[in-house]
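# nightly structure sweep
# worker-07 picked up a monomer target from the shared queue
# config: single-sequence mode, recycle default, output format = structure tokens
# input follows
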Amino acid sequence: MAKTMCIPSFHDFIAMNPIYKAYADSQTAQEIYAYLSQLETIDKMIAANNNGRPALYGAQAHIEQYFADRPDFSLSERRVKQCVGTMVRTILEPLGYVPSGQRDLPRAESRYFTSARHYEFDADKARCKLVRRLELEPVQK
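# output follows
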């Protein structure tokens, strides 16, 4: 199944979560959603979650490094942080991950986020799955 058929678009995210419609035209919100939707980022969030951390832990450092201090989507605002958490939920739900509670993020590693959702996997709710493909290539000499 193609990524676009599985993960809702940013436009779909806004339609599904109208409380965040104020961010519909935010370039930063769109960029963060695009980053969170990348397969590599999804893999990092699932790995963090499977290691007992909040799923956001897998993406939080990158988000804080590249998207901090932007006037159209300020990570210092509570509502913006909640929006980012809802983005994560929206992206992970089609993969069968359902929220199971909040977990703290390490304070020393996060400037803006203090806690985020942890998820439980429910195979019955999964509409698609992330597939890893590893390959070996010969070394050119």
